[in-house]
Design a protein that fits this description.
Elements (H helix, E strand, L loop, with lengths): L1 E5 L5 H11 L7 H6 L9 E6 L2 E13 L2 E6 L3 E2 L8 H15 L4 E5 L2 H4 L12 E2 L9 E5 L10 E5 L12
Parallel strand pairs: 4-6, 7-9
Antiparallel strand pairs: 1-2, 2-3, 3-4, 3-5, 3-9, 6-8
Length: 171
């Protein structure tokens, strides 16, 4: 039975091993520049477990998007052996519901528009925003959890999250 729960410090090694298997190139992505050296937004890091095994992960990060508070979602990862079972969708639903319940108004990400459209993400809310490195504009997506949270937003996306003084991962 798959359970989605808040990430705990004991999950760090399993989460990093999963990400290393699924997304070994993640450290070269512009989104990683925003995550590096930061903690995820408080209460917005989740893992999926199949019994005692960690099989999925998603985290949200505090950013400023063109001068407006927002969250950066990612990475979303599901173990190869459990893909296609709705784990990624479940992680997304929990993450977005908790972000909305915590009062966050907007979420941005860089990802597959065909996958993320089912959660309400489109390119329009992010159209005036600029990531810290090159991204395929078609894959730069936003979701407004609050009314017009990103309408007219323009400018650079910058990290605003709390520094992580413990965990260090070599790129």
């Amino acid at each position: 039975m798959i359970r989605i729960v808040n990430e705990r410090p004991a999950d760090i090694a399993g989460r990093e091993a999963l990400l290393d298997r699924i997304m070994p190139e993640r450290f070269q992505k512009p989104s990683e520049q925003l995550r590096a050296g930061r903690l995820p937004a408080r209460g917005l890091a989740f893992v999926a477990r199949d019994g005692g095994r960690l099989v999925g992960s998603v985290r949200l990060w505090n950013v400023e998007a063109g001068g407006r508070p927002a969250l950066l979602l990612g990475p979303l990862a599901v173990d190869c052996g459990t893909q296609g079972k709705g784990i990624g969708g479940g992680l997304m639903q929990v993450a977005l519901a908790r972000a909305a319940a915590a009062g966050h108004a907007a979420v941005i990400l860089v990802g597959d528009p065909e996958y993320y459209a089912r959660f309400g993400f489109t390119a329009d809310p992010a159209s005036g925003l600029v990531m810290p490195g090159p991204v395929d504009r078609r894959r730069f997506l936003g979701l407004e959890l609050g009314s017009n949270a990103l309408r007219g937003a323009s400018g650079r996306v910058i990290a605003t999250g709390e520094p992580d003084r413990v965990f260090r991962k070599a790129a």
